[in-house]
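quick one before i forget lol
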Amino acid sequence: MIQTDGPGAVAEADAALAIVHAHGGSAELAADAEVGEQLFAIRRAFHPAMERRGTVLIEDVAVPRSALADMFAAITRIEREHGIPIPTVAHAGDGNLHPNFVFQPDPADPDAVPERVWAAADDLFRECLRLGGTLTGEHGVGLLKRRWLRDELGDDSYELQRRIKQVFDPQGILNPGKLFV
């Protein structure tokens, strides 16, 4: 789905359509704003639809737009190697992808993400970084991705970030034990 707006929207939409067709894709323009909104409703239903297939770990990575095809190929390989479906939606215009790791939870610990899912996520994050991307395009590193942050920043930058936190929080009272401990 491609959306354009503003004074050049029609010309931009026509150009995007021509590019899709030139590369063997199939696409058509929405007939009007109402049809466009219906298409967006379908897009917004993606995540709830995935939740019907199992528990979903929704992730967020970004790669240079020139690396999108390689990243999608890597996701397909990672799905196959780990036996985990990873349907992915994207904001392709800025290289932001939302891979959804779909799995069946362990009945003994239904809130835990199984290690095999983390192994697949590890492969996906490392591939993203190898392609010149970043661990997050929108949602932040948070607690779930902190184990990969040093890989993205490198030792020197990671240590600098830790020291900056120490300057502003010498007693460790601001968000204690979260990221830079």
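fyi Strands lie at 55-58, 61-62, 88-91, 96-103.
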